Automatic annotation (TrEMBL):
One cellular component term from this protein's GO annotations in UniProt: cytoplasm
Name of the protein described by the UniProt record: Putative ribosomal RNA large subunit methyltransferase N
Superkingdom field: Eukaryota
Record's subcellular location: Cytoplasm
Record has rRNA processing as a keyword: yes
InterPro entries reported in the protein's UniProt record: Aldolase_TIM (IPR013785), Methyltransferase_A (IPR040072), RlmN_N (IPR048641), rRNA_lsu_MTrfase_RlmN/Cfr (IPR004383), rSAM (IPR007197), rSAM_sf (IPR058240)
GO biological process: rRNA base methylation; tRNA methylation
Domain Radical SAM core: from-to ranges: 139-361
Keywords: 4Fe-4S, Cytoplasm, Iron, Iron-sulfur, Metal-binding, Methyltransferase, rRNA processing, S-adenosyl-L-methionine, Transferase
Reported cofactor(s): [4Fe-4S] cluster
C-alpha cells in the first residue's frame, strides 16, 4: 500500500521525504487526473435558542471553552445583541474560529415593517420561506412585544384572522426568540438596563396557539427569563391561550409568576363553542377550574379576552377570587390588533404531520 502524494499528482513542488522508489512506482501507474477536492460547507447551528445546558455540553465537546465562557457568549448574544462572532472580544481568536466553524447567529429576515398611527409597529419576519407577524405596542409605562408561536393555527376561532390560515408548522425556539431579537435590534434596544428598555414586556398572543407548541414556547421562555439571557421578569411575560386546559397548570408550575391570558369570548358553552371551537374539548367549567389552580401557583393576574359585557363578566370572575385585566386592542389600521394577524405562508403538505396534530410537549 502507498499513499498518494497530492503535490506529485498536481506537479507542484515537493519538500521531499518520499523515497525515489515510491515516486517511480507512482509515475508508472496510470491513475488519471485527480479531481479537485471540493469541501462541502458545514451546516452551522443558530446560536439563538440553544439552551445553556446544551451549549455547555456542545462547547465542552469542542474543547477549549471553560464554563464561564458560556455566560460570556450569552451576554454577547442576548444582552449586547452582537451578531458578529468576530466581535466577541473577550474570547480568544481560537475560540472565535471554533464558534464560527460550528455556529452562526440568525434572527430571520425582516420582510416588512409597518407603523400604525397609534405608534404600534408590525413587523413581518421570515424563517426558511415562512413568515410570521410580530407586533410592538408602545404604552406610557411599558412597551409590549407580541410574538407568534406557529405559522397559521389549527383552532379556527371565529373572531381570529389567523384562524383562517391553516397551520403550516410550529415555530422552533430560535424562531420564537428570533422575533424578539429582530424587534430589539430594529429599535436599538440592546445593552440597556431593564428600566430603559423599549421592549419591557412580552405576550405570546401573535399567530398560533402557544400551548400547542409547548416544547418550543417553554424553551423560549427559559431563555427569555434567564438572568444571563434576555433577563425578563416572569411577571412581564403573558402567555395567551384559547383554553388548552391540560397545559395551563403545567405552565404555572414550570414558570411561577408568569401571566396568563384566556381568549374567553363568551360566558356560556353553547356560544363559546361556536366562537372558540376548542371549547367543545375543554368547556368553560374545566377552563375556570384550571385557571383557579393556575392562580394558586401564580401571583400574576389572568387576562380575559371577551368583548361583550366585559366589565360585568370581569367582576364575576374577580368575585370568584381571580385577578382580572381587561385588554385593549391596538394597531387596528395596520391589521396588527389581536386576531388580525395573518401571513401568506401556505401549507405545502396535504396532510398534517402526526406530531403537529397533537400537543407538542
Ligand atoms: S385565537 Fe389563537 S388559537 Fe384561536 S385561531 Fe387565532 S391564533 Fe389560533
Amino acid at each position: 500500500m502507498f499513499r498518494r502524494c497530492y503535490k506529485l499528482l498536481t506537479g507542484s513542488g515537493c519538500g521531499g521525504g518520499c523515497s525515489s522508489n515510491t515516486i517511480n512506482t507512482l509515475n508508472n501507474i496510470n491513475i488519471g487526473v485527480a479531481s479537485p477536492v471540493v469541501a462541502t460547507p458545514k451546516k452551522t447551528k443558530n446560536l439563538i435558542g440553544i439552551s445553556k445546558e446544551d451549549l455547555t455540553k456542545q462547547l465542552t465537546e469542542l474543547g477549549d471553552f471553560q464554563s464561564y465562557r458560556i455566560d460570556q457568549i450569552w451576554s454577547w448574544i442576548y444582552n449586547k445583541g452582537q451578531k458578529n462572532i468576530d466581535n466577541f472580544s473577550n474570547l480568544s481568536n481560537v475560540q472565535k474560529s471554533l464558534l464560527k466553524e460550528y455556529y452562526h447567529i440568525d434572527y430571520g429576515t425582516l420582510d416588512s415593517d409597518q407603523l400604525s398611527k397609534d405608534g404600534t409597529r408590525k413587523i413581518l419576519v421570515g424563517f426558511s420561506g415562512d413568515q410570521v407577524e410580530t407586533v410592538f405596542i408602545p404604552e406610557a409605562r411599558r412597551g409590549t412585544l407580541c410574538v407568534s408561536s406557529q405559522v397559521g393555527c389549527t383552532f379556527g376561532c371565529k373572531f381570529c384572522f389567523t384562524g383562517t390560515q391553516r397551520l403550516v408548522r410550529n415555530l422552533n425556539v430560535s424562531e420564537i426568540l428570533g422575533q424578539f431579537m429582530m424587534a430589539r435590534s430594529l429599535m436599538n434596544d440592546f445593552g440597556h438596563t431593564t428600566e430603559k428598555r423599549l421592549i419591557s414586556n412580552v405576550v405570546f398572543m401573535g399567530m398560533g396557539e402557544p400551548l400547542m407548541n409547548y416544547r418550543a414556547a417553554s424553551a423560549a421562555l427559559r431563555i427569555m427569563t434567564d438572568p444571563n439571557g434576555l433577563s425578563l421578569s416572569k411577571s412581564r411575560i403573558t402567555v395567551s391561550t384559547s383554553g388548552v386546559v391540560p397545559l395551563i397548570e403545567r405552565l404555572g408550575k414550570e414558570f411561577p409568576g408568569i401571566g396568563l391570558a384566556i381568549s374567553l369570548h363568551a360566558s356560556n358553552n353553547k356560544t363559546r363553542s361556536e366562537i372558540v371551537p376548542i371549547n367543545q374539548q375543554w368547556p368553560i367549567e374545566e377552563l375556570i377550574k384550571t385557571c383557579i389552580e393556575f392562580s394558586k401557583l401564580n401571583t400574576n393576574k389572568i387576562t380575559i379576552d371577551k368583548p361583550e359585557k366585559i366589565k360585568e363578566f370581569a367582576s364575576i370572575i374577580a368575585n370568584a377570587g381571580l385577578k382580572v385585566t381587561i385588554r385593549q386592542s391596538r394597531g387596528q389600521d395596520i391589521l396588527a390588533a389581536c386576531g388580525q394577524l395573518k401571513t401568506e405562508s401556505v401549507k405545502v403538505k396535504k396532510t398534517l404531520p402526526p406530531q403537529l396534530a397533537t400537543i407538542s410537549e
